Amino acid sequence: MLPLPHPLPPAWTAVPELLFGQVRAQPQQVSGVLGGSVLLSPVLPPGSRVKEIEWSFSSGAGATIQVAEFGPGGFERPDPQDRFKQRLEMPNATALRIGALELGDSGVYGARIKLHPALVEDQSFNLSVYESVPRPRTHSQLLASTLEWCNLTLQCQGTGKGAVNVTWRRDNGRQELGTDRSQLSPDGTTLRLALQPGTANATYTCTVSNPADQKVVPFDLQSICRSGGGQVSFSKSGYIVLTLILLAVSLGGAFWCWRLNSEKSADPAATPTAPAEESPQEPQYTEIVHRSPPEGNDQAPAALEHQDVTEGL
């Protein structure tokens, strides 16, 4: 039986892969800010001597293009009129700097490095370009402030187009948020706190970030709680609700009075009748019924009766 060969050390097993350029490590993730610059720098073994390096770019859907190379003749651009134009430079023999970043610069950049004496190493960088994070929109609202408690709400929202992360920390990021006296909204943009006077002397910070940029905004809780004046104070929304309640009560009272007066005016028994005014005296007449033609002595009593009535008036 032939003896089994001894396994080679890891360094020796990697040599054939280096010779034929078969080492394929995962791309290194790199983030850049729109309008800024980024430096892609390969990591080489100590003592390596670079003979030549070629940089390529692929946006995923399009073809891979060679964008730069560095050799005995120095830094060269195979196609100076490509999308990068004058935005590429090599500060040393291996690193590639991209300036005035554009959103279309996102993609995979490959570096094929030829080392002395005959080694080839491939490294790649996955660049993602993001818009800069604008200053977030913040708001603090004092809900109630007493001598024992200070209840307030802090709001912090991103104003950019891209997706951002919102995180909260206490005392300039040295402590995580507690869960006993704080309540965070599901989207992470609103933080509600209930603090005692001894714990109100703290600073909470809101950080709005994406993988390439961030903005930090502090909240001075002591100044917010002091705005309540030390007594009982309510928020602006509380005053609005109280005003609406008082207005509703006033309108209800006015309507009730109007309804009561309407019912009284509609009831004839409740309407007092004014005494009839006496009209000035006018002559009164008595209807005299004439009977059939008088007979005999009946004409004289009738004439006397007419005379008596006229004298009475």
UniProtKB/TrEMBL annotation:
- Give yes or no: UniProt keyword Transcription: no
Output the superkingdom of the source species: Eukaryota
Q: Which UniProt keywords apply?
A: Glycoprotein, Immunoglobulin domain, Membrane, Signal, Transmembrane, Transmembrane helix
Q: Which SMART domains match?
A: IG
Pfam families named among the record's database cross-references: ig, V-set
Transmembrane spans:
239-258
Name assigned to this protein: Ig-like domain-containing protein
Q: Which organism is it from?
A: Callipepla squamata
Highest lineage ranks of the organism? Eukaryota, Metazoa, Chordata, Craniata, Vertebrata
